[in-house]
Amino acid sequence: MYIVTVDADKCEGCGECADSCPGGVLEMVDGKSTVANPDECLGCETCVSVCPTGAVTLQEQ
Ligand code: SF4
Ligand code: SF4
Q1: Fold of domain 2-60
Q2: What are the residue boundaries of the 4Fe-4S ferredoxin-type domain, all occurrences included (predicted)?
Q3: Percent of the chain with pLDDT strictly greater than 90
Q4: pLDDT band at 19, cuts 50/70/90?
Q5: In this predicted structure, what is the pLDDT of residue 45?
Q6: Is residue 13 lining ligand 1, measured as CB closer than 6 Å?
Q7: 31 - beta bridge partners?
Q8: What is the mean pLDDT of the segment spanning 27-38?
Q9: Does the CB atom of residue 12 touch ligand 2 within 6 A?
């Protein structure tokens, strides 16, 4: 399974990761990306690629 994490201190709230995630894993809450549905992560790395600040990290477990 894949573990996606968002560093809230680095997130600038652009929403790109939430908009591009095919699994609906990430949602914007109070202007920050939040891991709302962690079990739906497909490991595609799109969120990592689109984030302009390096706030998103993906690990495989
Ligand atoms: S790796 Fe893909 S499926 Fe998982 S949170 Fe990122 S964009 Fe969504
Ligand atoms: S792409 Fe990066 S900066 Fe933009 S909302 Fe997602 S985590 Fe935050």
Answers
A1: Alpha-Beta Plaits (3.30.70)
A2: 2-31, 32-61
A3: 98
A4: very high
A5: 98
A6: no
A7: none
A8: 98
A9: yes
9's CB contacts (< 8 A; 6+ apart) are none
32-35 vs 26-29, strand pairing mode: antiparallel
> Ligand 1: which residue has its CA nearest to atom 8?
21
Is the separation of the CB atoms in 51 and 18 below 8 Å?
no
Closest ligand relative to 3 C-alpha: 1
Domain ranges for the chain, please list them.
Answer: 2-60
pLDDT of residue 4: 98
Cα separation of 29 and 36, whole Å? 9
**Can you give the chain as a three-state secondary structure string?**
CEEEEECCCCCCCCCHHHHHCCCCCEEEECCEEEECCHHHCCCCCHHHHHCCCCCEEEEEC
pLDDT of residue 28: 98
Q: What is the mean pLDDT of residues 25-54?
A: 98
